[in-house]
Amino acid sequence: LDDNERVHMRILQTIYKKLTRSRLGCPRYGAHWEELGFQGADPGTDLRGTGMLGLMQMLFFVMDSQMLPLAREIFRLSQHETQARPPANFPFSVMSVNITRIVLQALREERLSRECNRRRQVVAVLNDLYAAAFLRLYRVWKGQRKTVVDSDSLLKELELSAKKKPKQLLKSLEAYVSQSSAAHALRQPPAPSGSGEEIDFMGVCDLQVELEGDARLI
User: Fold this and answer.
1) What is the pTM of this model?
2) Strand ranges inside 20-163, DSSP E
3) Which of 68, 132, 152, 168 has its CB 3.0 to 4.6 Å from that of 173, i.e. a possible disulfide?
């Protein structure tokens, strides 16, 4: 993170506000970042292994309209505190950075080449695999009542899946998005006829364009 780059702070602010639903801004350094699951007062410390990609994938997660509900649900689970020992909660941001590391490693080992070539995209594939791996973590953690001591083994399982069965992970994400979209459509009142209003869906490939315009950050 570069303190001289204003957009970096705006990215952090956007992630913080989207996940916590806070309308208030927050300082660059402070204990509030630990609420998001960073290990200390400076989020940049946890990004050393992945660089800005680790932050950009978190931003994708909260900026994509179809991913935001999932991101918030995972964040809520990460905050779940019980009397159990070891605790059942986990550091959301640290886990996110670890998933970015897994996805990046899969790309470097050319495990995603076929999917990238098929879609003629790289960033979109990385972001979708990131979301798919996080979805898998969420389901396993919640369904099997995992605790913080299970983190390492679960991350190893995710890494194996991302490298050996990326297509399977991506299909599970597609199914989740389809089900969520269908459920959302059922809850929505019908739009007035002749309104002519189009849905402005921001896909993962539009993220860079939006950021360049500085339009979508909070």
Assistant:
1) 0.82
2) none
3) 132
Q: Which helix (H) or strand (E) holds 12?
A: helix 6-20
Q: Which residues contact 158 (CB under 8 A, 6 or more apart)?
A: 99, 102, 133, 136, 137
- Cα–Cα distance measured from residue 124 to residue 197, given in angstroms and rounded to the nearest whole number: 26
| Length of the chain (residues) | 218
Question: pLDDT digits over 77-89, tens only?
Answer: 998 766 456 777 8
Q: For 160-176, how does the pLDDT look when each residue is reduced to its tens digit (9 = 90+)?
A: 999 999 999 999 999 99
Query: How far is the C-alpha of 161 from the C-alpha of 169, rounded, in Å?
Result: 7
Torsion angle defined by CA atoms of residues 182, 184, 185 and 190, in that order, rounded to the nearest 10 degrees: 170
pLDDT per residue as tens digits for the range 15-63: 999 999 998 888 999 999 999 999 999 999 999 889 999 999 999 999 9
| Angle formed by the axes of helices 92-108 and 52-63, nearest 10° | 110
What is the distance, to the nearest Å, from the Cα of residue 6 to the centroid of all Cα atoms in its chain? 22
Q: How far apart are CA 126 and CA 129, in angstroms?
A: 5
